[in-house]
Each structure stands twice: as C-alpha cells, then as structure tokens.
Amino acid sequence: MEILQKLTALRGASGDEERVKDFILDYLATQSASWKVEPEIIHGQGFQDCVILIFGKPRTAIYAHMDSIGFTVGYDNELIRIGGPKIEEGIHLVGSDSRGEIEAELMVIENEDESISLKCIFDREIDRGTNLTFKPNFRETDEFVQSPYLDNRLGMWSALKVAETLEDGAIVFSTYEEHGGNSVGFCANFLLENYGVYQALVSDITWVTDGVGHGGGVAISMRDGSIPRRSYLNKIIALADASGIQYQLEVESSGGSDGSMLQRSHLPIDWLFIGAPEDHVHTQDELVYKFDILCMVEMYRYLMVNL
Known about the structure:
The chain is built from seven helices and 19 strands. With 307 residues, the chain is of the alpha+beta class.
C-alpha cells in the first residue's frame, strides 16, 4: 500500500488540492500506459484542479474527492476549521508559509460563554490564510490500515486500482467535497454533454456504526442526508447480489458526499455511494479493515462492467 501511504501524506485541504492533482498526473504519466486501456486525461482550464479519466465508451462515472478536512490559520494563530475535523488537544498539524515549514500543536481554549476557540502553538506567528492538516502517520497491520485522511485518499486509491482493468468508464477526481463545494457539477455536465454519462458511483469512505461494521464487506448506502433514486439503488443491489462479493447495506439520517452535490445539481444523474466503513472518522486515527477495502475494489470492478 505504498501509493496509499503517499496519498495520505499529501497536503490537500478543501480549496488547496493542487498538490494532490499533480501527484495524480505524475502517477498517470508513469502507470497508465500499462493499464488494460490507457485513458484520455482531461484537466486544466475549465476544470479547476479536477482530473477526469475517460476509458473507451463510458456509461458510468466513478467520483472520488481529492480534498481533506483541515484548518485555516486566522489572526494571531487562531485556527478556523475546514470541513468537520474532530478536535483533540495536542494534535500535531503541518503546513508551510512564506517563512518555511510548520509543525504546530492544536490548543483548545474554553471561553466564558462555554464556546471553544482553537489556537495553534508555534514559535512564531503563522501567515494568515495558511492551511494546516494532520501530520502524516500511516500505520498498517495484517488486518487494518490506519492513518489521517483515509477519507478520501482510500477512495482515490480504490479508483486507481479499478482503473488498471477498466475498459469502458470514467473516473473523476473531484475537489471541495469536505467543505460543500460542487466541482462535480461541471464535471458531470461535461460527461453528460460529451459522452452521455447518466450514471455515477461515489468512491468515498463511510462510517462504522451500529449497523455497519469492520469485516462486513463494502458498504452500499441506501441513503444518508441525501436519497438516491430507488430504481437505480435496486439495480445496483441486484448486481451486488449476483457478484458474490461481500457487502453490507447502510441506512443513515445524515452525512453527504459528491452524491449529494450531484443530487442538488440540475443534472439528471443517478448516483450511489459505495465505500468501505471506517472508525475514528475525521481524526488522525481513521481505521479501515483491509478485507472491506478488497471488497470495495472488487465491487467497483464488477459494477463498472455490468452497469
């Protein structure tokens, strides 16, 4: 899992995905010629920091967001959250500004009105607007991987594994997901207008809950804060049954993904979230079971052929 380790170490908070995009483009330059079908690579003007891969004659697109949660430095080393990171005193954060590399420590301040403020402890004032992310800490055992930013570097990694054997399909590496952006809107519009792609699968990482656990296989989300179209959901569940690949059904009342952004767009795109469950969500200790990762990759490979 060397590539996954490298992906999790990249700094790419929402709105600051350029390093992640460059890593993907460099990876494609060295690897894609050996894949079953070498994709057309679309990026640049009109796509911000997104990357789209086109294989053969696509019917379905996989969406995997590149960004992560993190923090922006405000005034006097105050920290402002990007997305929804879980807060823990003493977390180590990294970044860089005009005066060099930064490794700071998060401090939680309890205010008189019972609210909290966040500061970073560093030996100087950090440039305003600097983004900080969790310090890389990738750990692997026979059964688990654990690291900051498995959400969603693991979703990206899974999409790259699927790309190795993909003959017909599209893969979109999107931006801004953790902070409510909608880059998937213009990417989906491009795929619809140019290739007639009306179907989407969201390669992202979900939660371990009372109903979804480690070792049960990949999670197919019947709903979260958004609700996919039932006929499309039923079609995919029937295919999942036929595949013989282990999966579990998720039903949640909250949360969202690139699928939520597709649903809020004006486009008639069917979407479904399919991803491995993780524990310690949005912390520096996100934990995913390797068997569930394997099921995720195999399920995507099967669905991209049969959808």
